[in-house]
Design brief:
mainly alpha
């Protein structure tokens, strides 16, 4: 069991050593990534508390608890990322598009959770945290595209 945990921790560390993440020169992008990770920690805490509540208090199966907590915390993530990470005004259009950014997140985290719990016999209380950590880089770039798309369109129009 310890060897499996060590392999997963090593894999997570390798994600953060990807050259694009080490060599970011753009200060605005670096600030956004820092704020995104900070919001991610808060959102993950929110998700995890909800997950444990749904699983232990409401006695939902772990996957039901995962999906319920995921969708509720996604709404909070939209507002935190709009106001704090990317400093853009949330709109109904962006709110309706934002769940699309989480298609990758929910797919990867659900698959990882299933693999960790059912196939690798990891603890179902800890596995969601590992699964969420795996999704961070992809979710950053997809959410940036959705939340800042109108801002970029306005900037391009002003430049022309």
């Amino acid at each position: 069991m310890k060897q499996k945990n060590d392999r997963i921790i090593l894999s997570l560390k390798q994600i953060w050593t990807v050259p694009i993440l080490r060599n970011i020169k753009n200060k605005e992008l670096t600030g956004q990534m820092f704020r995104f990770v900070l919001v991610g920690f808060l959102n993950t805490a929110n998700y995890y508390i909800l997950y444990l509540f749904f699983m232990h208090i409401l006695t939902l199966p772990y996957m039901g608890a995962h999906l319920s907590a995921f969708f509720i915390s996604m709404v909070g993530s939209f507002y935190f990322n709009s106001y704090f990470t990317y400093k853009v005004k949330p709109t109904l259009r962006k709110f309706l598009q934002f769940p699309l950014t989480y298609v990758v997140n929910i797919s990867v985290s659900s698959t990882a959770l299933f693999l960790l719990v059912d196939l690798l016999n990891f603890n179902e209380n800890i596995s969601p945290l590992i699964a969420q950590g795996i999704t961070i880089p992809a979710t950053f770039f997809v959410s940036k595209k959705v939340l800042t798309s109108e801002k970029n369109e306005v900037i391009e129009q002003v430049r022309k």
